[in-house]
Design goal:
Layout lengths: L8 E2 L2 E2 L2 H9 L9 H7 L2 H14 L5 H17 L6 H26 L7 H18 L4 H26 L3 H20 L4 E3 L5 H7 L1 E2 L2 H28 L7 H25 L2 E2 H19 L1 H11 L1 H6 L4 H27 L1 E3 L7 H11 L12 H20 L3 H28 L4
Antiparallel strand pairs: 1-2, 3-6, 4-5
Helix pairs in contact: 2-3, 4-17, 5-11, 5-12, 5-15, 5-16, 5-17, 6-7, 6-8, 6-15, 7-8, 7-15, 9-15, 10-11, 12-13, 13-15, 16-17, 16-18
Length: 435
Amino acid sequence: MRRSGEPGGTGGRPGRPEDATSQAAAPQSVPAVDSRLIVREQGFRGYVGEFRRKLRSGELGSLPVVIAVVIIWTVFGSLDSTFLSAQNLSDLSQQIVGTGMIAVGIVFVLLLGEIDLSVGSVSGLCAAIFAVLNVLNGMNEWLALLVAVAGGAAVGLIHGFFFAKVGVPAFVVTLAGNLAWNGLMLQVLGSTGTVNIPSESIVSELYSTIFHSPATAYIVAAVGVGLFLLASLLDAKRRQAARVPFRPVAEIALRTAVIAALAFAAAYILNRYQGLPLALLIFLIVLVVLDFVLRRTRYGRQIFAVGGNIEGARRAGISVPFVRMSVFTIAGTMAAVGGLFLAGQIQSASQTSGGGNLLMNVIAAAVIGGTSLFGGRGSVWSALLGALVIGSIQSGMNIMGVSNAIQFMITGSVLLAAVVVDSLSRRSQKAAGRA
């Protein structure tokens, strides 16, 4: 008689031959361990190894665009010291707001793997609506502002309806919208073609207002860093309570220190010229709010799910038509907001509003910033980083006296490079089984 626990025995009864065979063949169970826990246990060496693994698998994140900003600033700064002056950098922080706001809406659309070609004309239309209602018809400026933004949302909803409910491809819907809304803008402006917006108008003041007190910029930087630290600690506590991998306090402290260095350096540079622009502050607040929506809410997870695997999202019970319609509504709303900032920048709405290379710039900003054209991967911060790249290139070339033709070619080359990086990254992720 074999004792219980010996090979071939079960509870003191003679073991059958097939029992021994199955026990010998069955692999020993190994508890699953999250790779991030191993990385953090290994300290600095573990993080270096994890960084190398991400590079090999194509998980580049925002690294390429950060490197691009450093290279652009280094090149133009070495060619002309004016580029890195406090005045130029402060002006740059204001000039990217209009384009960046529109690019935020493009980010949402790209997360679905779609495109919106109408945001340029929508931004011009909404600027024209505000100018005509407020300046020509005397409507209260705040009411005119709300009507203009609501108009952008309505346009986006129309695009989303035809795309999600009727089944017309987003490319076709928004291309038709680009023509139609541009025509409506010309009709709204009427025979004059241009409506000047007074400098004391709310739209002009939202763009041009600057907080000259040095304390304001530093307080905003401190509040931003404090909120980041608080959110990181709360997230770590929540994940620890759920018994899933979480960032240790030392890592949170290091990340907070990096954010603090960047925030206070930016505040210092802005204070060296005039101070903190209100337009930049509004832009940052919008980015924080929409980043929370994307990464911390159920709706945000649904957007990533639809963009990553539409059939899987549908089987999971997600209302795909609702997500699609809402995303295009957000894109139209952000196009309106961006158009109003652009109108405040030049203090007018004209037949050229929303035209030129605006559409190219906002799409380029979203893609260059790191949002994938294939859907399911990206961040609203891509709009800021991409707009910073586009704005830096244009600012540097304007200082150097480079013609518009050369600027268009260089910007197009940068966009192509960003798409190539995105494609290679996606291919590497597929090879590594992560896409």
